[in-house]
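Protein entry
_____________
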Amino acid sequence: MSGNPTRMGAADGVAAGPLRRAPNQRRSRERVEAMLGAATALIAEKGSDAMRMGEVAERAGVSIGSLYQYFPDKGAIIRMLAERINAQGRACIEAELAGVRDAEGLRQSFGRLVDIYYGMFLAEPVMRDIWSGTQADKGLRDLELADSRKNGALLADALHRITPGASRDELEIKAFLIMQLGEATMRIAISVERREGDAIVEAYKQMALREIAPGSAPPLAGEAGGRSEAKASG
């Protein structure tokens, strides 16, 4: 799974999202993609705090007025990139959980998802930058909560398939909490030394698995760190 947020959804056109106006023509869509690509490169190089709208326009090869036609401010660009990252992650979760039919299958699938997500955070500087600043930006906080609810609904669907007699409301609350805690775990893990981050992600994984698949075998210690390290180095 690619972690490049500039390409997510590009083939199907640019969704309105935080855009001031939706690009309807092919040339307009290509221009917006160039803007997002320029912003992604700048964030990777210097971080979102140091990025300036003028720099985005210059690197994208558009006028500053053209940039402001679509993005009212820097925050709108960052939220658009965040929405694409979220959509990419949700598609991965949906694909991974679609075939779950028993507790062991859920354990395996959820464990893989944690490893993939952590690997994306380690490998993608833009993703790290955006989510590191989530707590300081209400728009990003709202996006994260909405994303956790959608991802939680996917997890609740899988839980319901393996425990059909359980309360759907209770499953949705549990799944939402697990997904939201996962977001917080990743932010903590990328804020500390790598060894400690690996241990934090592994602890979250085992804690979550005890809740969602209590009858299955526990994951091997160090599983998250090992797979994520391989993914990041690849």
Remarks:
- The CA atoms of residues 195 and 225 lie 8 Å apart.
